[in-house]
Give the backbone structure.
Amino acid sequence: MKPVRWVGGSEKDLEGMPDAPRREIRAALFAAESGGKARNAKPMHGDLGDVIEVVTHDRVGTFRGMYYIGKELIYALHFFQKKSKHGIATPKRELDLIRRRLAFAHRQEREVG
């Protein structure tokens, strides 16, 4: 079982979500900790291909969570509500934050490994 390491303010962001999306994302993290994968978890594209994205919906909107599975840890990178009314693309600001936090996770992996 791989423990979760919260990067930046990711844990606070997740805790600020409504109950249903928070539970669903926590369930996806637990599945990853246990070596599995939630049904709503999929790899991102491009340079973020090693980041897993979880998408969940409830009555107030769409919520997303991103994590990276390292050698020893699951890195919880970013959790947020998608607020754009058009398109499904992740906003650039959010992608930039995910890239910075992923770079941190990769540095941590190199130091451990």
